[in-house]
Fold each of these.
Amino acid sequence: MKRKVSLFVPCFVDQLLPEVAVDTVKVLRRIGYAVEFPEDQTCCGQPALNTGYWGDARPCAEHFVRVFKNADFVVCPSGSCVSVIRLFYPELLAHSSLREDAAALASRTFEFSEFLVKVAGVTQVGATFPHSVTYHASCHGLRELHIHDEPLQLLRQVDGLKLIEMVRSEECCGFGGTFAVKFADISAAMGTSKAESVAATGAEFVTATDPSCLMHLQGILGKRRAPTRTIYLASILAQDGLAQKSSAQERP
Amino acid sequence: MAQTSKAQTENPSRERILEQIRAGLRTVVPEPPALRSGQVIFEPINNPLERFQQECVGNLMECALTADSAASARQLAKVLQSLPEGEAFVQDDPALRRLIELAAPARPIRWSSQGAPGEASQATVTLAEALIAQTGSILVTASCGGRGASVIAPCHIVYATVAQLVPDLASALSRVSQERKLDSNSFACVISGSSRTADIEKILVQGAHGPRRLVVILQTVT
Amino acid sequence: MSQTAAQRFLHDAAVKSADLMHREIIRRGMDSYDVAHLKGRARIKDWEAARQKCQEIKREAVNHLDRYLLQFEEKVIARGGHVFWAANGEEACTYVKNLATRLGVRTVVKSKSMVTEEIHLSPALEKAGIKVWETDLGEFIVQLRDEPPYHIVTPAMHLNRGQIAKLFREKLDPGIGSDDPADLMAAARRILRQAFFAAEMGISGANFLVADAGVIAISTNEGNGRLCTSIPRIHVVVTGIEKVIPRLEDLAVLWPVLATSGTGQGITTYGTLIGGPRRPGEVDGAEEFHVVLVDNGRSQLLADAEQREVLHCIRCGACLNICPVFRHVGGHTYGTTYPGPIGSVLTPHLNGIKEFKHLSYASSLCGACSSVCPVKIDLSHHLLQNRRNATEAGATKSSERLIFRAWRYAMLRPRMYALGGWSVRKALRIIYGLGLAGSILDPMRVWNRYRSPVPLPSESFRARWRKDLGAN
């Protein structure tokens, strides 16, 4: 009987970056997990939470808890969504009848890289990616979930991958959700600084634990016509060196 | 009670502010668990003299070890000779009277009993209440020649003994409390180097409004 | 029509975000701080224990604020000092102004105090015909430029030496030839010397008010604060009520932590303790000692169970230094006395949530501030709480409230959510297909102003799942 995980796919990944989730599934299956995707899932509530509309975030959070209540593990390819579930659901749902279910669920919800390393106990996932890669330490994963080393442990085991450290890897890329639109100039300036740090490494790819960072960075890099491409962590680990085109190269 | 009613008429906001504070504090805020006792925040100081000397270097302070008062006097004379002409302000204390007599500097001395130092003072010479190894600091109070003595002149010279060395800030402050130094003095200061600024381009400039040189003549035998 | 604070902020942020020279100056300053800060932390054996200890000290002080303030006041008065409690900035300014006028003060020398900025003390004194000299080098520089401090610890970090030299030549002495920082400091020292000796009143702030000893504690490096509190015959301290700490021994950890967080030093050059006017027999010192305790909205924060800890702030500036928003827009953009994360949390409380909520929104919530605060204030969380407070106070746009109402409706209905997503992608495909990316018809036009458009996938993940990914 295979071990089972339930996949939570952030709304923007579902709609705009499906490859992120496809590759997450691929890797989880490769290391021996059966993956379920409860189709009633929608959003963790982060946009409403972050904009201050906790009254609107609350029912969204309750819906999430109901959908995933019976999951053995919830795995999500986004540190920011997981931090909402683990760190903010207790506060958000303090007066809800689902309060205890939420607390229990929070302890079984993991960001992709921390699940692999801390729960599944693997760092070698049989990946091949003969390219130079630099790592951006996405803020929520870093500071709220305390994910420091796990992504690097995974990347170091990838065959042929050359890991290059960037300066100020822990400085925010500037996405910040609605911040990117409400304070567009600041967001773009922060993204530009991050793009410069990336460019200084000369790496072919930049990766992170949050695909939202990468979506924002890819836009900035694209506008600058920079050669570096963004690639989500699972998409690197999904590369198994077999014949097919890598999904990275499919990306424009 | 005269004080209180005076305050009420001259400072009516006092009661209002206190009332607002008390009202605010009626809201109970849960407190997280306290620090486990015995947690060591600072590395214990095993060799205070060595540590003090190391810190002096980092603080851009000069520390000269001397064996006796004759050597201290020679050191004092040497420092004073290196400075431009002009008076030296000296804390009026028997130990410093003796030291100055031994050093016999060729410049006018203004004793603290004659008044505070001014712009004419090229150097000030004072005792200290204690030396602090952890941070390479001297602790002075108003009794050490006054407030200006450690800040007005371009060079401040401190005459101290190794017996005055305490390991850390905690013990120095504890001593200040126990000996009620702040009841008998309106002023105290922990000084850890020459004055400095980094306000321009974050570049360190030694010697701002206070002394450019802080010299400690540290006598090993009292 | 005059701009709101939010409009001004957006405008200034746009200007500064594009200013590459400004970014480079700040980048260099902050890089140097980063290195110094890490070195400073390495000197402390257990940094996390130090933070926790400082948090406990400040929590104890603030949770018993009345008791410790009264203890402090009693000791100061017993030594012949005066304590004045000011409900707001106006009362504080009036007290100092009246004191100065009554005692024939014509010149004041001032050392750095953010509270005096908050209450606009200098303009109030100057209106009464009193000349005020800022003596901290950074404050001296921005005073000459007639602008507010850029940063609470390094007020002039936005200027390079060339700009400062030019300023000195124009305002002080055309003979200043060099732009070397040491020479510029020497020029400032020379000019300010006369002020120190001529001034009848010295005004300082206080980093801490030590309750059991009844003294103020000031942490400085330059010596100007020492001179302001040694030479003039009247010494006035202007401080917030929250600065109190219980015991003198608390400084054993607070002093090193403040210095480490502020500048990376192990301790500041001068840790000054003053408890009253000069005592009989002392060589020098002020003849009169006044402490002005300023409330100005602080006591109201006590009642806020979530955010009372914001009063623990020791004004070290570490959160400003680490904040990526601060690093890109700089201190002046905030348009408030206190910039950076602490300013963004505090200002809506002190100056009104309606007018200043935008500061709490102008953050990506990266959490760096919380991670670096030496007294462990969870600043990032408070920014989020301020946002919640703003919506609950009805201070946000009704159009936004409606958008989230609709969002919530959709998020509770999986099929509607899926359909909504599909519709948006379809619409974007059409718009981009017509070459209208970035135009008024493009819902992503703000995004697309600075970024190449997000490539649109043909299918959502859930569609892929249904189609061919379901089997394990």
Amino acid sequence: MRLLITAAMTSIAAPALAGEATVSIEIPRLSVAEYHRPYVAFWVEGDDGGRITNLAVWYDVNHKDKEGTKWLKDVRQWWRRTGRELTLPADGLSSPTRAPGTHQIAFNASSKPLSEMPPGKYQLVVEAAREVGGRELLRIPFAWPPKDAQTLDTKGESEIGHLTLKLTP
Amino acid sequence: MKKVISTALLVTALSAVSVAAQAHRVWLLPSATVLSGTDPWVTVDGAVSNDLFYFEHFPLQLDNLAIVSPDGKPVTAQNLSKGRYRSTFDVKLEQPGTYKMTVLNNGVFANYKIDGQNKRWRGKADQIATAIPANATDVKLSESQGRVEVFVTAGKPTTETLKPTGVGLEMIPVTHPNNLASGEKATFRMMLDGQPASGLAVEIVPGGNRYRDKLNDMKVTTDESGTFSVTWPNPGMYWMSASVQDDKSKIKDARRHASYATTIEVLP
């Protein structure tokens, strides 16, 4: 009985799954004359910048004639590291831009892409670019697979608010 | 950098011809070098000017513009126009990969004397025999090979168009020219007629000099393998250029002046 309660208390919105990583990102509400929801790319890279794993790309997928891909290059570091090698849209990777507020994406360690990540030191990298706005890139270092439950976070200054990585072994 | 001997001739003749000159800089400036999306377009400006990258002197002649797509096929530029200070053309990038856009200016200059009078002529190599009178004396010929080019990539960079042509002065990127970032080191190789050009002085100038006091140019010399490296101090567009004087013209008794200029973009 006690075990069940403990498990329930360490989970977030869903029952604790064996091996999970959840990224929580706050898209800030900005007071600008012309607001566009940012393009955001989420990926994992090794400490040396290699071993790249793409997690998600939020862009204007619904633009007609795939025109939304025209601005993918503005997510500069991501484009250069990995984005330009991809064909988008891609199932399970690309989805529409999000409105201001907090959003979560969860990954199961036993499914791709996390299941293919060898143990080691990594960084979660999140880069946002906003049309007629700025750019911001945040990093959260972490070890994979996690030995214990962790909540790692950081905060941006302009285009990204709070960014949190919750790891469950 | 070695200076041309017959300076008077070259400087005046170059006023309307876009051959790389000691007095001016010749350049192409693409609207972007890194592009994404389906069928992106680029607009490229061309000019001869002093300051980079400002239009204040002459437009670049686009007669000898050649664009090569990633698979080696030629591409036709669109919407070509020549204004007072700049020329412009558009290119639709229908394939993913790296494109090369080049303006070649090959010409011959001649200084000669007729009855003690100094004469000058400028034209193409195949016109020399008919252009210079038989009674000309003190004929001095100078062949000019000028190459101005830029590289533009849509999607994933490729390397097919980075290969040398083996004619004149060329830059062969070791670091892909559309993969440059501020603070990182890039390496390039200069080749002359397909051979490494060692001991060559290369000038690198960051754009935007109207708004600063120092030129902030960098001068590097190629090593025995014709290679040089540069670590980019800031993001922006940079102009890189070099030139060579020798006797290796294919035209009999002519001096050869080969020059190269490119504009590369360094991203943050």
